[in-house]
Amino acid sequence: MHMADALLSPAVGATLWAASAGTLAWCSKHLRGDARDHLVPLMAVLGAFVFAGQMINFTIPGTGSSGHIGGGLLLAILLGGPAAFVVIASVLTVQALFFADGGLLALGANIFNLGVFPCLIAYPLIYRPLVRAAGASPSRNRLALITVLTTVIGLQLGALGVVIETQLSGISSLPLSTFLLLMQPIHLAIGLVEGLATAAIIAFVYGARPDLVAVDDTTTAGATASFPTRIVALFVALALATGGLFSWFASSHPDGLEWSIEQVTGKPEVEGEESAVHQWLARLQERIAPMPNYAFPASAEAAGEEEPAWPAVDAGTSTAGVLGGLGTLVLVMAIGFLLRPRRARTSG
Amino acid sequence: MGSIEGLLREVRSLDATADQASWLSRIDPRATILATMAFILTVVSFDRHAVAALLPLAFFPVVLARLGDIGLARIGRKVLLALPFALMVGLFNPLFDTTPHLELLGQPISGGWLSLTSILIRTVLTVAATLILVACLGMHRLCAALDRLGVPRVLTTQLLFMHRYIVVLGGELGRMNLARELRSQGTSTLPLAVYGSMLGHLLLRTLERAQRIHQAMLSRGYDGQMPQVGLPLSWHWRDTAFLAACLVVLAWLRATDPTALLGRWLMGIAT
Prior knowledge:
By secondary structure, chain A is mainly alpha-helical. Chain A contains twelve helices and two strands, in the order H-H-E-E-H-H-H-H-H-H-H-H-H-H. Chain B is mainly alpha-helical. Chain B is globular and about 75 Å long. Chains A and B meet through helix 1, helix 2, strand 1, helix 4 and helix 7 of A and helix 1, helix 2, helix 3, helix 4 and strand 1 of B.
């Protein structure tokens, strides 16, 4: 579920950083105005709780596998949306920094996918209204059903976010439909498991301390008052920003273009060699080929024999690339080795 | 992501590395963070088929690890753990992107294989750089720097606080789970009902703990505002020099293609 740096383009990574930073700024402003100053230690220990809780797996009956909580919805129920978002952001940051889950550039995307969707969309728009509608003291089963449903929807949105971000980045060549068909069902299953885990914990807490789980307006004061308009405005702005970026991206970046052409023609590759689009793409491809400019003279005329449409294919450049790559690796290792003894002595 | 014991060991060992004195620990943490961000942006800005051009960037994490006295073997082990996800997504590239891009020993190499290799190299580089950054700085210096770089105080406070309580709550949950395992005749299965009550109990205890912490904070003069996060920082000329040097080298690696230059030079020697 975590996006990785390697699959993101700088434009998409930066957009989502901006989106997450904006949401974080909004949440932190919201929390500053919050009179509940016990929130600081509460958020910290609950963050640590989610972190530790993700390490314990329950057994899924009938299968050999196991599952754990996601944490977003649980935090939102206990803390309210904005505070839960900050906690999830901190959990994801520590995971990115200490455990290489995701990465620094992908952190914006991960906070968005796993923070905004469960805490700021699924919780206020699905969980709260449904629990309110269930009356003052909903039955355990009903509460569990609502919890599972909210988790599933939040995670489906998050998985959709991953697919869209990966596609816009254009690093992976997976077609949109295939990726969607892979991601959404997998995350339906994961969502059910996470929902069950969350529901089990909520059911226990509901039995022992129903006040903690209740949807009253004191624990999440103000979270709903100005919420829908703000979040709608945020998303409109975000959609515009993403759309603007993407159109720029598509016109200047051949991979993004190639991707959109795939969507239009419905084919992974444009086949007709005579078509203008193909020739144009081939020219673009030639321009962005990994090592276009340094064929060694002897093989220059040999180039283009195998594939007339792809003149960038050239044995000479490839050999140069491989040799250079090996040479670089040797140099990197040598530097690592040379730096070691001196460092060891100064530290020891 | 492993067991609770592994989690605690990892947090402790990273804290221990961050405490040791090295050349890099004298550099302002803000400079190290900015240099690492610049590095990651440089890596991801390459074309998706770039393979050879990415390799010289490996200088950055290697040199940084050495300057910060971080064992490369330890970083390498953790990088390996991050590879399967990248492999999973990248694995489809050779199936969908079959246009030949290179020719190697008479074999055409398709764009898909190139981009798969590129994804793996990107993963190794970015993950290694991030891990080295944290191992060098540690949570306190990192949060102090983030705070001064303009990250909202609520998040930096949260990070510092949470980092402290991960060890406390992780230890507690680990002991609870050990006790459960010892009482369940060695079966490792954890039914959902038991799971719910176990984590539910811990959650209630956690909430009570938060109340006690809050009271302790109040009795020490907490008034709803956190004092300055972390340590005082001062920016010296050598921090500027370090950051400038990193940026110049990264820009040079991005603009020229040292791999190609080296390759042509080696071929020139060979012929």
